[in-house]
Amino acid sequence: GAGVSQTPSNKVTEKGKYVELRCDPISGHTALYWYRQSLGQGPEFLIYFQGTGAADDSGLPNDRFFAVRPEGSVSTLKIQRTERGDSAVYLCASSLSASGGPGGELFFGEGSRLTVL
Amino acid sequence: GQNIDQPTEMTATEGAIVQINCTYQTSGFNGLFWYQQHAGEAPTFLSYNVLDGLEEKGRFSSFLSRSKGYSYLLLKELQMKDSASYLCAVRDLGGKIIFGKGTRLHILP
Prior knowledge:
The structure holds two protein chains of two kinds.
Chain A: E1 5-7, E2 10-13, E3 19-24, E4 31-37, E5 44-50, E6 53-56, E7 65-68, E8 75-79, E9 88-95, E10 107-108, E11 112-116
Parallel strand pairs in A: 2-11
Antiparallel strand pairs in A: 1-3, 3-8, 4-5, 4-9, 5-6, 7-8, 9-10, 9-11
Chain B: E1 3-5, E2 9-13, E3 18-25, E4 29-37, E5 44-49, E6 53-57, E7 60-65, E8 70-75, E9 84-92, E10 97-99, E11 103-108
């Protein structure tokens, strides 16, 4: 597709359950970023990948959160033992490169809205 | 560490000009972005600065002073559709991009 695609668009789950959120970046974009956004706040950085490897995972809140990008394209954000505080919109973005210069801007998907009951 | 500050809310009148300021601290600077986000939608890219000075793009301009850790977004000839949140974001030398909390801009007719 032409843009960043995220699935599911909406996920409602119960406290304690496991959740996977998927991101399909723009073809050819080597850098992929995950953020989460709560109402009235800016996107909070979680992790970013350059190719297959996690270049910076300093924003993952704890070890319940994990993300992979095994073939350098699609990425999955995994959340174990979900808590009510995990409820947010999870945004994925991709860019041509993370190394700087024009053309490194992020293109965002529409997000996955996670609600933990 | 990194920190970004911008005003929480601003109000302006249709047809006027508004300036949204952003100050940042980062351990290594490699570019500053401005994004627009309408309620319930994803952020969309507006502008990019890596060198000091003004970048103009239609009704929107963005300014950067690296020595001051300061940027502003200037919106001219405001239209009702400009009502949105404006996000300042900074990239560090490692490629990590962090965002400020955003400035909600209200446009009055």
